[in-house]
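Protein data sheet
==================
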Amino acid sequence: MRSCAVAAAAALLASGCGGAGKGPAPSPTPSEPSRPPPATGRFWVDPDTSAARQLAAYTKAGDGAKAALIRKIAEQPVGEWIAGSDPEAVVRGYTEAAAKAGRTALLVLYNIPHRDCGQFSKGGAPDDDAYRGWVDQVARGIGDRPTTVVLEPDAVLHLVDGCTPRAFHAARYALLKSAVERLKRQPTTKVYVDAGNAGWRSPDSLDEALRRAGIESADGFAVNVSNFQTTRASREFGERLSVKVGGKHFVIDTSRNGNGPYTQGDPAENWCNPPGRALGERPTTDTGGGPVDAYVWVKRPGESDGPCRGGPQAGAWWPEYALGLAGNSR
């Protein structure tokens, strides 16, 4: 499987190389919920996601069957993807809403320079100094509110697989390391550096790269971001990698891995809106112990991986795909 992943952290993002489909554009400052969402563990449920709005529309139309399916997504906490300029206000609004509900915000930072090797999800901060300033804004927006951060999907992998030109390697490692250190200055922030998925490569190829990226100062790493590898395979992958990086803990993205990876089509395209997939384990910190801190929904189920298999641009809400994920899940 190709190592790259797709993100949609801004409207211009479409699709990228084949690790996974990434997340959505940052949403506006969250509105106050009309009624509290159900308890789903420590992470906050945003009442104004695309799934929540779709649920409201189906309910208003009296379509109980579709509403019941979309509710499986709308009532779960999902990652808030942060990209683009001036993130401080968005991050502050999101973390304040989470803190007011007594929950933890889940943020995904996706703005590293030379993002996605100049492919479909290219972009990111214009230079190294701009990125450092951007991370500082994110940190100020977080303040002292409980927050979990998944740091820069694919940034390390694209160094390991050579997708990112070698001329940028040293600078990127330094940026990731400084980002971890800056974010960890916030008193209640946990940071997990993205570390690929079980369908990519052996953990043996990642430990040195993660050390250079500052894993020692981080709380751990994240696996299966926006991918479809099973929780069991992801746990095994993460446990092997944990041993190699000093016993660091990790989180697993279980948003769409209920039926595992798609294996019928071209392997180079099986990351992009694959058919027949299902929601995975609901977000929780009850993972059975060991080094797995949480199952999280980093990717927002129902948002497209990109313009493939009839899907809209990456990050755009796709009701039909959302219904399929929910309908295929328990």
Remarks:
- Confidence is low (pLDDT under 50) at residues 1-40.
- The longest strand covers residues 189-194.
- The two ends are 28 Å apart (CA to CA).
